[in-house]
């Protein structure tokens, strides 16, 4: 991979990004229509361009969009799936997942990429509620979560919305364990 551009107000790839990227490389098919939500620098999307010709990314951070474009990623500035039409075979998301108390919040784009709300699941809940409208019938979603966010609680969010989830990758990093969930529709409940 060629060297990527970065910006101080954009989340730089870390262990969570690398774990999710590795899982994506195992999951992606050349025929997949792919969307990456919250692309940041575009590290994952730029890395899979050779695997699928149909890759689009989104981010709410204007600096992330500019950075991802510089890194060769087709990106749309939007909040999660807002304004996105059609369905996707593979949805990728490294969400803000760190539990953050209201008094700890900082109005800063980089912090916005980390702040998962009081329980770390605020953005994940919103994402899960919208996933069904963009995931193809046989589509898959890969989402990074943390033990700090509550693995069982996140899996329950998806289950309550008609999805099945499986842990497909994990890694211990300092005081947390990172997981990649593979989320699919529960076709028995359609």
Report what the structure shows.
With 190 residues, this protein is α/β, with parallel strands linked by helices. The chain has one domain (15-189): Rossmann fold (3-Layer(aba) Sandwich), CATH 3.40.50. It is 27% helix and 28% strand. It is built from 6 helices and 7 strands. Strands 3-2-1-4-5-7-6 form a 7-stranded mixed beta sheet, sandwiched between helices. Helix 3 links the parallel strand 2 (54-59) and strand 3 (75-77). The longest helix is centred in the N-terminal third of the chain and has 13 residues, at 15-27. It starts with 14 loop residues before the first helix and ends in a 5-residue tail after the last strand. The model has no long low-confidence stretch (mean pLDDT 89). It comes from Methanolacinia petrolearia (strain DSM 11571 / OCM 486 / SEBR 4847) (Methanoplanus petrolearius). Residues 22-102 form the Methyltransferase small domain.
Strand order of the largest sheet: 3-2-1-4-5-7-6
What is the domain tally? 1
CATH architecture: 3-Layer(aba) Sandwich
Number of separate strands: 7
Alpha-carbon Rg, integer: 15 Å
Instruction: Kindly provide the name of the CATH class.
Output: Alpha Beta
What topology emerges from the helices and strands here?
Elements (H helix, E strand, L loop, with lengths): L14 H13 L5 E5 L5 H6 L5 E6 L2 H9 L4 E3 L10 E6 L15 H4 L9 H10 L3 E12 L4 H10 L2 E11 L2 E10 L5
Parallel strand pairs: 1-2, 1-4, 2-3, 4-5
Antiparallel strand pairs: 5-7, 6-7
GO molecular function, one term: nucleic acid binding
GO cellular component, one term: eRF1 methyltransferase complex
Pfam family, one: MTS
């Amino acid at each position: 991979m060629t060297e990527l551009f970065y910006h101080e107000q954009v989340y730089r790839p870390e262990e969570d990004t690398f774990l999710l990227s590795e899982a994506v490389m195992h999951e992606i098919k050349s025929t997949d229509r792919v969307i990456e939500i919250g692309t940041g620098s575009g590290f994952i999307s730029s890395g899979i361009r050779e695997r699928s010709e149909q890759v689009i990314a989104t981010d709410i951070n204007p600096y992330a969009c500019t950075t991802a474009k510089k890194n060769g990623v087709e990106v749309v500035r939007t909040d999660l799936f807002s304004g996105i039409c059609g369905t996707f075979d593979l949805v990728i998301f490294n969400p803000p997942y760190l539990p953050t108390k209201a008094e700890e919040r900082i109005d800063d784009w980089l912090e916005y990429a980390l702040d998962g709300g009081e329980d770390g699941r605020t953005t994940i809940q919103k994402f899960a509620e919208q996933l069904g409208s963009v995931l193809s019938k046989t589509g898959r979603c890969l989402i990074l979560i943390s033990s700090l966010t509550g693995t069982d609680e996140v899996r329950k969010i998806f289950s309550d919305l008609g999805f099945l989830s499986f842990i497909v990758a994990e890694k211990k990093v300092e005081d947390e364990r990172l997981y990649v969930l593979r989320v699919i529709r529960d076709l028995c409940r359609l």
